[in-house]
């Protein structure tokens, strides 16, 4: 009976009234206050309204039923599959009735609004996150990367960086995560290195490997291999500059061997075991002498693998170059030597600056002992101490008479002030100081340099700041007489 009356009404009711009515009916249904017969009729009415031509009506029903576990299962599925994203989004984002398979299907077939809604769910399992990472639009990827309730595996994060690392929102969301794998970081770094040469890209790759934990380097080597960036020049560069971990994991990835076994074989590069490993990895035979020389030199000059010294790099390059015959290989080694030489020069310049700064600091006067004394107590503490003193009786206090003022002109001369006299003597002595003649020499830190040009050239020296003012000698004589008095 309810369904008949409702259908007779909705045929002529405006869209706004239909939206209000269906929202009220949906609230009554999930509240559970209906008799079983009425509940069945209400469910039929809700099902019929899935075909309402007005999206606002279907959206009102979706918003009301979205988060309720009491909503009819088929109605929730119908709303989630609605062609209008604004209708499907509330159910896709909140409904507990939708299964993972259904959500994955909606990710593959829905628009960007539906994908964003699914990526915003409070809990997202790894399979659903992988589906979003594989096919969703960048806006949904950014929403997924920033969702704390999403379980995203490393390969899904890497796939997101590969597909949409150039999108500002996706990049910001990925970089804000604390669990971004090194492969994903490398893909984002390549976005910054677009347009740069091979050397710059390889340097950035090795720097990223240095910053990564050893547990991630095998996956990083696998990523480099799959993306076509695991080259012989990258391995040799890493080995020469000291990133032997990436070299070992790359050999393990290429040969299919365990990384620990590879590290053990690298300890004896001249043995047959390493020769077999090298052949299994498929590295160029023309590169083998340079790699053997680099491994031996690195173990000899830096056995613990702790030093990042440009001088060691240059020594290793020299040994590798002595064994290299290929022109391309020699070109790479020359570029590595040039990079190390520049780094060595920068370190030497910085050391000189530090030495000069230390010498200048040593020439400064010693710190006064008074500067180390503690500051006086605060005014509040002083006032508190003054409150403890006994109050003085004004009647017993002697009257204080002001002392007569002495005019400034009649003030007695400070003939006994030795400090003032010494200061005046230094000033007078400084006025008579003159620069050396143009033919003399000045010693500076043990080095004899020619004196400044521009002197008078005569026997009479010129004061360093120029000739004195007229009458200066008379004023000096008068001052000396005053001091003598």
From TrEMBL:
Residues 375-384 have a biased composition (Low complexity). Residues 366-389, 449-485 are annotated as: Disordered. This is DUF2336 domain-containing protein. It comes from Alsobacter ponti.
